[in-house]
Request: fold
Amino acid sequence: MTDNTETQRVVTASREIAVGAEQVFELVADPSQQPRWDGNDNLAQAPTGQRVHGVGDVFTMTITNGAVRDNHVVEFVEGRRIAWLPAEPGQEPPGHLWRWELDALGENRTRVTHTYEWSRLTDEKRLPRARATTADKLQASLDRLADLAERS
Reply:
């Protein structure tokens, strides 16, 4: 029998976007662009000049309630994958991860997979928001990202 509670702690969505992986990755790896395509309607703004270049980078984002988050990059392959753990400034990340994976399917086609994982989240006050982050919210981000990338 599968533990549905644990299964639901990793949420994934994917789709093809009709542009090259490099162009899509630039939108994901530049935090100042992320509020433009956020399907969770959770991101307000990020200062420019924070383009991610590798594991260990930290970028700052202001969320819609006015709080600031430091996002600790824990996975990075240029043009292919990026993942980060958000945290309150000066605090350790509470255990939820956002990941973007890009697979080039050709010069002008990219499969993008977006994952939200909260299997290590221990902060009880964050659990309702984590549970509310469903595959349809991830799909909304992918759809907005596709629209933005394909119009550029």
Notes: Residues 1-7 have pLDDT under 50 and may be disordered.
